Amino acid sequence: MLPGFMSPTARGGVGTRNNCNVLLRELQQIWNEMGESEADKDWMLSEIERECLEVYQRKLDEAANAKANLHQSVVAKEAEFATLMASLGELNLHSPKEKRAITLREHLSSLHPLVEELKLKKEERVKEFADLKVQIDKITAEISGYGHHNGSLYSLNLEEQDLSLRKLNDYQTHLRGLQRQKSDRLQKILGFVNEVHSLCGVLGLDFVRTIGDVHPSLHGTSVEQSTNISDSTVEGLEKTITRLKLERKNRYQKLKDIVSTLSELWNLMGSTKEEKQKLSGIVSIFRASGTEILKSGALSTENIEQALEEVERLTNLKASRMKELVMKKRSELEDLCRKIHVLPDPNTAPEKSSALIDSGLVDPCELMANIEAQIIRIKDEALSRKEIMDKIERWLSVCDEENWLEEYNQDDNRYNAVRGAHTNLKRAERARITVTKIPVMVDSLISKTLAWEDEHKKLFHYDGVRLVSILEDYKLARQQKEHEKKRQRDQKKLQDLLMTEKEALYGSKPSPRRSSSFRKTNGYRPNGNGSMTPTPRRNSLGGATPELLTPRSYSGRQNGYFREIRKLSTAPLNFVAIAKEDTISFSSICGSEPESPPLGSS
Prior knowledge:
Blueprint: H1 3-12, H2 14-34, H3 38-88, H4 104-143, H5 165-203, H6 207-214, H7 223-226, H8 231-269, H9 273-277, H10 280-283, H11 301-340, H12 350-359, H13 364-409, H14 421-435, H15 438-456, E1 461-462, E2 465-466, H16 467-506, H17 512-519, H18 551-558, H19 575-590
């Protein structure tokens, strides 16, 4: 085997070597099959070896060129690194050279992040120099008395400019000196301008016009660029401040007397926060001295006139407003209680509140505060009851669906080809599945309610009735109704058995139409899963089954205040009447035979 042909396979590992050996063997086998002579074989192997050597030589040349290019890139990157270091005035503390021998690629890779970092650092340094120069030119122009510098910026020659930290510190030192020089002259004038602005805001005066009378430059868009800091400007500001303070003192005393009267009227009438909101800024003057008033427009002539109008209005409405506000707040409390199905405090009922106000035994303000405290408590309780109330609504929704299903099952024309019959059939199928979830929903609601009661250390009432009691009664009534339905099914089976015996004795067999009529007399059909659909309806008087009362039914019974709430049940199912109809139908078919047992026995 030729060494020139096998050398790449030796370097390529066992897998490549095996491939070359296999190819060589296949080539020799082909030659043998072709009948090539040994001389031809040797010549062709020599050609293969020559071609391999040419490939090696070509790859060697390419590698040498790549090395030269890489070395040139390294030299260029090192030069760029050195230039940046010199420009920034930094020592070569981050030299990328290492003690161990590294390849050119590793050396170039180590240089690249350092050069990029230095570039970013140089850009930031140039920005710092530019910012410093702009500030220096700006302050110099203001101190010189021009008020505005010409806007020309110092152009930094990035190829020649010294960007070292030493030069940057020189710029910063020069800027700080100019800033201190300006601050001494500007601090006083800015303080006067701010004080004039505050006084104008409190008095509701036009600040731009007031400060413009002193000097037009004092209300520029940028104070530092436009402020005139001459002695005449300072003197004019001092006089303006003295005049505004005197005006503020006079208005404060006048408005204080008005607000005192207004507060008495508010306290007497128990005004709400919403009614006080529009004058809350004026009332805040009571809690601050005249020199501490900072709210804009607090002492404006508009506020004084508005306060006077409010005092006059409240004086005229004082007599009738008292009872109206209390009733309005009570109505708000009742609305909140109605939403979460709790009973409001009867001590603040409208009739009692009206009587107390008319008699003068209770201060309307105290009565209003009591109702507001109840509103806060009800809002907090509504948050804690939300999860249970949501579950109650879902349960009642399922009960409504069960009620609809019961009515649907009693409709003899439900399978007729009428408009909406297909939709109702699909709804009935869904309703049968949903109704089966009622027991689980009730048990889950009981568990949640008991956990709520344990957490809050009180009973969970629904319109004055404990919710757990309602749910337990509902479960018991549902079980009793299921038992009654089972008894009705057993009675029906007995009727069918007696019918069979009659047919065997007398040979009479009702016609299919009459048999169908017999099965439909009670109007009570099984649902899709083979059981009778329970319904939370109230039975008629004398019925054999108990009432299925939901919270809606309890609401209508227990609390007359909530009678407008819709009850779940609509028409009752009278199982006694159903049994009587079955008896009549059976007698009409079979006749009265003395030997037959009584129909009602079961």
